[in-house]
Amino acid sequence: MEKKAIGNASSDDDVLEQLGYTQELKRNFGLLGMVGFSFSIVSSWTAVSGVLIIGVESGGPPVMIWGWLAVCLVTLTVAYSMAEMCSAYPVAGGQYSWVAILAPSRYARGLSYVCGWFMLIGIICMGAVNNFVAANFILGTAQLNYGFTIERYHTVLVAYLITIVAVVSNIYLPHILNKLSKAILCWSLLSFFVCLITILTTNKNKQSASYVFTDFQNFTGWGASYATALALLQSAFGMCCYDAPSHMTEEIKDARKQAPRAIIMSVYIGFFTGFIWLIALCFCIGDLETTGATPTGVPVIEIIYHSTKSIAGASTLTSMISIITLVAANSLMAEGSRAVYAFARDQGLPFSNTLSKVSSRSVPVHALLLVAVVQAAFNSIYFGTSTGFNTIIAIATQGFYLSYLMPLLSRILAHFSGKKTRLEGSYSLGRWGIVLNIIGFLFLGFICVIANLPSVTPVTSENMNYTSAATAFVMLIAAIFWITTGRKTFTGPDDGNLLDVGRHVG
């Protein structure tokens, strides 16, 4: 069959066909539903709440606030770059597919394969981290009411339960995902305003403006510059996962327009809610050491309780946040399964033929089950050591950021080599695209470096950051599978003008 240029394709299904794929999933999502889906995962104000201890120890309030502002501004360059690529190539593979299309032809398949592995590790690890955060909020609320000691195995077992609920919901209730996404967007914004107004009005012992915006606090043992760099990881974690719409493009109506919009809108909403929430938390934070050592295990619960002076009030507000994290678990399960499905469809994984199957409900059930099992395995690490699970948090962030970095690098190389100087999507950045690509690439590279740094000194085997070792392990696994099977079977969209029709059918 003779192919048209992608830019002339008349429908989402035409674009997908020209990329060499057959439409198998149902297009249920509109713009509002996808913004809700994406923001339920990004959900920056709750995400920074879950990892607040990083900023508390590494610079304190001013670094958390100004670091958030800086990270979000630079994140927009990445988000706009990814939105442009998503508009041009709206396929569930997202980042790794863009690498396959844009990278130098000689290296495209190999780089795409590695990118796919980092993408999957990032998404699945982030799901495990979110389940861990959700479990912490649930147990922290219970501890506030009943005063028991939270053990590590409590957290793991609750995380398991969250994983089970998420996978069952995705398998048997896929038709509610769009409506649930719209509902959680409204719930998240409502919860944001309720929590914000409540702690600001009830807290009678607020910190001074100088404490919030200028007083540097450092409990890491490292110098000020080093601690400041470490604190940026809190913001990097909080402003992450905005690629989610790219993995759902085969379930979005008018995906070339609406998926990029959802990426950008979720970042802006996350930017402003996270910024305002951080400022409020810092004014209400109380004593840093007391907040960091709270028996609830969640500093934000301590801040809310310190503000309201009411167990019932604090429990209500943290329960509102808990609901958001539970829906995020459901959304991350859906995103992870679509990413696994897409990678398996391109023969990028062992047992790809099984993992790429779609059920009668238009759901990749085997991919969902794999994501659930791997999430649970990552959560199991916390049985033995908190340090090991802290590494999972860093891997989640670095996995995402490396998977973002590689398509931006490919886009830059494609531009300067003349392979692709302009993308054919309806969401085009024009001449500013390459500038944003370069800024975003440099930012992602910087975050990937500091994600590997030890967080406290003196460095011991207990507090060492093992992210670099874990990253090397992922690369080793990817290399083994590439050498044994991937280089023979992996197919992804080649260099832009697409594979023969039917290559991916069946």
Topology record:
Elements: H1 12-18, H2 31-42, H3 44-50, H4 52-57, E1 58-59, H5 61-88, H6 95-102, H7 108-146, H8 152-172, H9 177-202, H10 209-213, E2 217-218, H11 224-238, H12 244-247, H13 255-283, H14 288-292, H15 299-308, H16 311-345, H17 352-355, H18 365-384, H19 386-417, H20 433-450, H21 467-489
Antiparallel strand pairs: 1-2
Helix pairs in contact: 2-9, 2-13, 2-16, 3-11, 3-13, 5-11, 5-13, 5-20, 6-7, 6-19, 7-8, 7-16, 7-18, 7-19, 7-21, 8-16, 8-18, 9-13, 9-15, 9-16, 15-16, 16-18, 18-19, 19-20
Number of DSSP helices?
Answer: 21
- Looking at the structure, the CATH topology is Amino acid/polyamine transporter I
| Main β-sheet, spatial strand arrangement | 1-2
Give the low-confidence spans.
Answer: 1-5, 494-506
Distance between the termini: 18 Å
Overall number of domains: 1
In CATH, the architecture is: Up-down Bundle
Transmembrane segments: 29-53, 65-83, 111-133, 153-172, 184-202, 222-242, 263-288, 308-329, 363-383, 389-409, 429-453, 465-483
Subcellular location: Membrane
InterPro entries: AA/rel_permease1 (IPR002293), Amino_acid_permease_CS (IPR004840)
Protein name: GABA permease
